[in-house]
Every structure is written in structure tokens, then in C-alpha cells.
Write a structure and sequence with these properties.
It holds the Pfam family PH_3. By secondary structure, this protein is mostly beta strands. It is built from one helix and seven strands.
Length: 101
């Protein structure tokens, strides 16, 4: 699990990287899909920036998403997503566990 960080709040979500150019984040308490982060085959449609060992930002042409991984695996998320974008991974399911603040 990771935390989706908003301006004043953060919520725990399960972030899943699928075998399509899509990330899904799910509310783990309600088991409801909260959003799909979709990008096209154009690798420029999605960028990931690591701001600290535990914080990373996903940027699409329409929106930016900030996440916190309490286990400090922001770089691993970046490697996994960029590997998928580069076609190096045919299928990857990433699930990171986050602790409370």
C-alpha cells in the first residue's frame, strides 16, 4: 500500500501496475477502485519523479498524482513503471505496503 497525498490529507490506497499502460488505485478498506491512471503507448504521456526515498509523483497530460511509500520504495516504483514503459516488462503487479504517518 501507498498513500495518495493531496493538499491537506493523505489516504491509504493500493496501487497496482497492470499489464496495460495503466495504474489502478484502490481503496483497501472499501475494495473500490478510486481511479485509473491511464497513458497511451507514447512514453511521453507519463512521467514519474522521485522527490525523496518515500515520495514520488506520477504526471500525465491531464493530472499529477503524489504518493508516499512508507517503506521508502519510491525508486522501485519508478524503475517498475519505467521498465513497463520501455517494454521490458510484459506483466508486473506491484503492491507496496505503507505504514501510518
Amino acid at each position: 500500500m501507498v498513500k495518495k497525498v493531496q493538499k491537506l490529507t493523505s489516504k491509504k490506497v493500493q496501487l497496482i501496475l497492470t499489464n496495460k499502460p495503466k495504474l489502478i488505485y484502490v481503496d483497501p478498506a472499501k475494495l473500490v477502485v478510486k481511479a485509473n491512471i491511464i497513458w497511451s503507448d507514447n512514453s511521453d504521456d507519463l512521467s514519474i519523479q522521485v522527490s525523496s526515498p518515500s515520495h514520488f509523483k506520477l504526471c500525465t497530460p491531464k493530472k499529477a498524482f503524489w504518493f508516499e511509500d512508507a517503506k521508502q520504495r519510491a525508486s522501485q516504483w519508478k524503475i517498475a513503471i519505467e521498465g513497463f514503459k520501455a517494454g521490458e516488462l510484459s506483466y508486473l503487479l506491484v503492491q507496496a505496503s505503507a505504514a501510518s504517518y
